[in-house]
Design goal:
Blueprint: E1 7-11, H1 18-31, H2 34-39, E2 41-45, H3 48-60, E3 66-69, H4 86-91, E4 96-99, H5 102-107, H6 112-124, E5 128-133, H7 137-141, H8 145-156, H9 162-165, E6 169-172, H10 186-203, H11 206-211, E7 213-217, H12 225-229, E8 236-239, H13 246-253
Parallel strand pairs: 1-2, 1-8, 2-3, 3-4, 4-5, 5-6, 6-7, 7-8
Helix pairs in contact: 1-3, 1-13, 6-8, 8-10
The structure holds phosphoenolpyruvate (PEP).
Phosphoenolpyruvate is lined by residues 11, 173, 178-179, 217-220, 238-242.
Function: Involved in the gluconeogenesis. Catalyzes stereospecifically the conversion of dihydroxyacetone phosphate (DHAP) to D-glyceraldehyde-3-phosphate (G3P).
Catalytic activity: D-glyceraldehyde 3-phosphate = dihydroxyacetone phosphate
Active site: 101, 173
């Protein structure tokens, strides 16, 4: 079995101007020790307007903190007012990009076909997509979470070849747990994360499924992270609210201690 390095990614959402971004990354870098980077990959996902500042800080101080974006255009370039292309993100050395976050699906009507096109745009620019999937409360109450999530995975991965899919990261984020303080139980997270891995094995191979990191996201905090991350198929966390405070984010990064 592949030893998958846990990934702890902080989705800043629409928080922090570029000066606040610098302060937060500096605080994070100051708090983290070598052992932390060996135990987990640490990534921040700031708003577009902060990425250049984060890049300058990471490069200048040779920080081991990775960074990426929260969205990517499905288009290469041209008359798409307000959009940011994969080539632009690649030029800023973004390693990751969130795709299909539930807030994009809900407020911007992003469907699986658009999510699929954005995954293609990311890979085309050598950026790793961090694909978000998850069910709403009604689906969960009806017990349809696995079926719902697997259909999102199928839609997102259409025509994505194995050599790309093996680099993908998938975050299981139940919509009812995002920003609500209502975290999934470790067993809930494991059920869906293992089903996602199973679907990757069906779509590609057991070998590939074994390599892909599957994260959990939804009200992760320092105190609930150890229980969730102890599950066999949970390889890290996508963190929203709790990543805005360096001390809390560091606690999550140190989930194994
Ligand atoms: C998210 O937005 O991806 C998220 C997981 O948010 P929160 O941690 O605040 O629930």
């Amino acid at each position: 079995m592949t030893q998958r390095l846990p990934l702890i990614a902080g989705n800043w959402k629409m928080n922090n101007n570029h000066l606040e971004a610098i302060a937060l990354v500096q605080k994070l870098a100051f708090s983290l020790e070598d052992k932390d980077y060996e135990a987990a990959e640490v990534v921040v996902l700031p708003p577009f307007t902060d990425i250049r500042s984060v890049q300058t800080l990471v490069d200048g101080d040779r920080l081991r903190i990775g960074y990426g974006a929260q969205d990517i255009s499905a288009h290469d370039k041209g008359a798409y007012t307000g959009e940011i292309s994969g080539a632009m993100l690649a030029k800023l050395d973004c390693a990751y990009v969130l795709v299909g976050h539930s807030e994009r699906r809900e407020y911007h009507n992003e469907d699986d076909a658009l999510v699929n096109a954005k995954i293609k745009a990311a890979f085309k620019n050598d950026i790793v997509p961090l694909l978000c999937v998850g069910e709403g409360l009604d689906v969960r109450k009806a017990g349809g979470q696995v079926e719902h999530v697997l259909s999102q995975v199928d839609g997102a991965l259409k025509e994505i070849p194995a050599e790309q899919a093996e680099r993908l990261v998938i975050a299981y984020e139940p919509v009812w747990a995002i920003g609500t303080g209502e975290v999934a139980t470790p067993a809930d997270a494991q059920e869906v994360c293992s089903a996602i891995r199973g679907r990757l094995a069906e779509l590609y191979s057991a070998d590939l499924a074994d390599k892909v990191r599957v994260l959990y996201g939804g009200s992760v905090k320092g105190d609930n992270a150890p229980g969730i991350m102890a599950e066999k198929d949970v390889d890290g966390a996508l963190v929203g609210g709790a990543c805005l405070k360096a001390e809390e984010f560091v606690k999550i990064i140190r989930f194994a201690e």
